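The methods section describes the discrete structure representation at length, but only in general terms. An entry of this sort, consisting of the sequence and the corresponding backbone structure tokens, reads as follows:
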Amino acid sequence: MRKRTEAQVNNPSSGFRRLTAKLSGSGRVILLAAVCLAVLMAAGKLNFALAVNMDGEVLGYVNSRQEYDELVSRLEHSVSDALGRDWQPALTTYVALATDRSEDQVAERLIASVASEARELQVVYVDGRAVCAFESREEAAAALEKLADTYKNDATESARFLEEVVIAAGIVNARLAEDAGERLAEAVTVETTKQFTASTVLAHPVEVIEEENLFEDEFYVLTPGRDGSEYMEYRASYENGSMVRCEETLHLREEPVTEVRVVGTRVHHSEGSYIWPIDSGWLTSYFGHRDGSIGSSNHQGMDLANDGGTPIMASDGGVVIFADTYNGYGLMVKIRHENGDETWYAHNSKNLVKEGDEVEQGDVIALMGCTGVASGNHVHFEFHPGGGAADDPQDYLPECPFPWLWT
């Protein structure tokens, strides 16, 4: 067989000329078809390409052997990484006429052959490591946004991932698409910042000045005070909801003003109510007009009798303002109570208190006698509201417990 020259190989039209010279009749139809084919090839409508065949099925066409080798090498590397084992597709190639040439089509169909193990997905890479995968980029972005929203609230100023997070298409193990949300949550750290405020009322201090002329529950304000305030602003950083840093950004303070208060130290002795001045005895004379008695016919008090030396008690607490002999009253004790009332106790055999003493309700202040103008041992008890004129003691005392002597 003779070899074709290089010129003949590169110029197929010379072969067609020789073939035309030998053909006649029906052969002209075949020639016409060949001529049409040559015209289409010359016009760029038909081109030879490399068909990629797998298990008897053409997956697609690539332009050249170099393009095929690069595609297969890239896929073998990517799919092997995804599967964790070597993967080599069983492919054959041959030259064929093709109008559609698509490297992407070949790659897609090759990947589809191992779709249960490795797939081309939208992969989320965290610091360069593939942690999960989604069907679409939009789905991956939504998962990231949902995760960030988990740690946000109305006070959140900003939110970001501390790691480098990238979404990119890639051939990965199909298991990365399983539980993708959980995988993502375990792989990234969401940092949020929040600003919050705190305010505190600074209660004003009270400076106390003691006053002995005031009772212990009495006071008045000499200098008014005013509460102060403290206001702080903070910015805090959180990682997956846990605070990791907090810094003060603003601090305002208004100092309080001290209140000066005058407070009494005088102890209360009065109860504000009254008791009978003896525990037992007899009622011998009422308050008011009386006839045929020793002493005044206009009796200013009540007479209560018992044995000499019977204890006489303070009807209420107060200060002793008199403790001495007083005209026909004999030995007498006068007590001024805190409300200004006065009680008098007369005809005592002995006074047990002195002027200026403070007494409590029920304290024994004297012993019963008959000093002054008196016909027997008794206590003459007077009641002077507000320190004024005498009034009937029974109006200020409990019901009289003593029997009337003259029955």
Summary: Confidence is low (pLDDT under 50) at residues 1-44. Residues 162 and 298 are 103 Å apart (CA to CA). The first strand starts at residue 47 and ends at 54.
